[in-house]
Amino acid sequence: MIPEIQCTTTEGTIIPIQDYQSENSSRAFQVMAVEKIQEELKTFTGGQKEKAISQFAATQLTHYCEESSEFAEVVYKTKRTLSDCCAEVMKGVGNHISDIDVYRGIVRAYYPNADVRFLMNIEINGAAPSEEEMSKLPEKPAPKAKPAPNPQTKPQVTVVPPKKKEAAQPEVNLTAGQRFIQLSLF
Fold it and tell me: What is the spatial distance between Cα 158 and Cα 67, in angstroms, rounded to a whole number?
């Protein structure tokens, strides 16, 4: 029978050495992954869209690594960088992208078979709004006044459209008894 080797933590808890080593290596990956993300944020390269989400992506990746040692290990060991991650998230994006798609893209850049789910709750504190508050219309900003054009700064220019040229009619030589029929398909 093999004796069980134990380790006592600074708090006085006794942990089997196998669990202690795996707990420490998991924590080590979390620390190393977070350091890797911070270094990559300092040397970030990418376009305007990628830079727009780089700080957010770094914060979320750090949070995910702190939550999951398995995810942290993948982030640390992968050759992809934060710049690569942001480029992958923003690939094919037009003028907008939803938050959930950014979260999913960040996770899938490192862990392709992972997914992200949101749970949103509405917290109602206190009583419902009064009838007066519900019937109140929102305040609309006053329209901006457009300055009157200054006639001295812009010279008056009259634009004359070009004259239309009449299409030359092809000459048709008809002999006696021939008729000319024109068909139009449009």
Answer: 70
